[in-house]
Amino acid sequence: MKKGARLTVILIVVVVAAVAAALLVLPRLLPDSPLARMLPKPSAGARGPAKPPQEQFAVPVAVVTASNGPAREILLLYGSVFAIREVGIFSSVTGKIKEIRVQPGERVGRERVLAVIDRDQAGLKFANAEVTSTMDGVVKSVLTEVGATVSPAAPLFQVVDLDTVEVAVDVPEKRLGRIREGLPVELSVLSYPGRVFHGTVSRLSPVLDPVSRTLEVRVRIDNPAQALKPGMFAEARLLLRQEQQIVRVPLAALVDRPEGQVAFVVREGRARQVAV
Question: Which residue from 196, 185, 199 is spatially nearest to 237, judged by alpha carbons?
Fold first, then answer.
């Protein structure tokens, strides 16, 4: 046989083999293709009984048993501690500071003498004047020093009330319908690991922040031991709902969907979606 004829035969064999392979493989890879629809379907005996579509695509899942018991729905937010009352203490006269009787951090009562002012002028003698606190609280800062000339124009001390403090948190707009005054709140700070402080929602801002679309909410906490300090970073857990007996499932079993949270319940061997 001539060389050209042999080459032609080889090419024909290769093409036939490629077509045969395509007829065998493509229907499996592309079951919905026109080629697959043209070919006869394999008999059930050749490949075993056909499986229903739901069995062909079954996905194994882990199943847990729901339980009954108490449960809480909370909104977790973060904010800073603020003093509710803070005042500046001024002198009522002009003169020089003769004596300072308190230090920052010292607790003072109303009418406590904080400083003494020398009112003497050249050739004139006046009685010393006293600067007293206008409320019970803690000296936050001393803004003057002995020998300084003072007048009624500038504060000499800052006094804050720490017996009751507030935490400011920003609530997302979509959560505002669940927030109200008096809502119970649990708080914790890094300075006291494991310790929980209890407070309530005391006031809501009348307007939202136009940039963040959040509303500032203040949480008031009794602080008689003054453990909470202004400026502390706090974690606030707003208690939106509390039930004594409710069906409980693991948090991992809940799935967020546009219409809300759902869970999957196994019934008759199949997982069915139900709204939570």
Answer: 185
Tokens 């406590």 belong to 112
At 197, phi and psi to the nearest 5?
-105, 145
CATH superfamily, with its number, for domain 72-82+163-244: Efflux pump adaptor protein, beta barrel domain (2.40.30.170)
Specify the fold of 86-161. Answer: OB fold (Dihydrolipoamide Acetyltransferase, E2P) (2.40.50)
Residue intervals in the chain for CATH 2.40.30.170: 72-82+163-244
Q: Side by side, which strands form the sheet with 255-257?
A: 255-257, 260-267, 270-275
CA gap 263, 271 in Å, rounded: 9
pTM of the model: 0.61
pLDDT in tens, the chain (276 residues): 555 555 444 545 444 455 555 555 555 545 555 545 555 555 555 555 555 555 555 667 778 777 877 777 899 999 999 999 999 999 999 999 999 999 999 999 999 999 999 987 766 678 899 999 999 999 999 999 999 999 999 999 999 999 999 999 999 999 999 999 999 999 999 999 999 999 999 999 999 999 999 999 999 999 999 999 999 999 999 999 877 777 777 777 888 888 888 888 888 777 788 887
CA 53 to the chain's CA centroid: 43
What's the token pair of residue 130?
Answer: 């006293």
